[in-house]
Amino acid sequence: MTNYVALLTAFAALFAGASSGAEPPASKPAAADPASPPAGSAARFTQAPGTGSLSFSFMQAGAENKGSFRQFATELVYDPKNPAAGSLKVTVQTASLETQDKDRNDTLAGADLFDVKKYPTAQYVANSFAKRADGQLEAIGKLTLRGVTKDLRVPLNLRPAGNDYELSGEVALRRLDFGVGQGEWQSTEWVGNDVKLQYKVPVVRVR
What Cα–Cα distance (Å) separates residue 94 from each residue in 73, 142, 164? Predict the structure, then answer.
């Protein structure tokens, strides 16, 4: 009788364990570090302080004239595995133009040309990158200059420098498309319409 009761008790315990459906809780995956960007995500870069060049050239009376903007800021978002997700923002202080000639500086800064008092900044904003047929990267964005906004595709050379990049290239535009040339300066007889911009900017990773 004792053996029968013991056997019945063991069987009941086994049945109860099997029918409960209880399982040990599954271990939860480790939480992602919020400070670390996901693998393959775009990184952010800003212009290294006190570095970079943004120059321009144009034809006047048959001779090439050159100048530069001494103050501008660059912000880049870039993932080499997903260029289309990239972005570029360049903000230029127009009053910082320099041509090594005070009279020419004053003329360019005046109301008929850059009108730096009314339009103290120019800005280029691109929210996507694309690769051209020659493999070169190109920013697809808009340039706002003298209050006028126009589409502008800007070629970009990105040379790796450790975890950072050097951004460089050149692009051409027409000054009259942006109203840079009022009154007598609308004529292209003495001052050409075509302007070439050249840029070389080190950018450092911020995350």
Answer: 12, 17, 27
Its domain, for residue 103, covers 37-205
Do 14 and 86 lie in a common domain? no
pLDDT, residue 7, reads: 37
User: Do 138 and 187 fall into the same domain?
Assistant: yes
Q: Is residue 90 within 8 Å of 122, Cβ to Cβ? A: no
Specify the DSSP element, H or E, that contains 145.
strand 137-145
> What single-letter amino acid sits at 83?
P
Centroid of chain to Cα 29: 34
Q: In this structure, are residues 115 and 136 in contact, taking their beta carbons and an 8 Å threshold?
A: no
32 and 42 share one domain:
no
Average pLDDT for consecutive 10-residue bins of the chain (207 residues)? Answer: 40 40 44 38 90 96 94 95 93 97 96 98 97 89 98 95 93 97 95 96 91
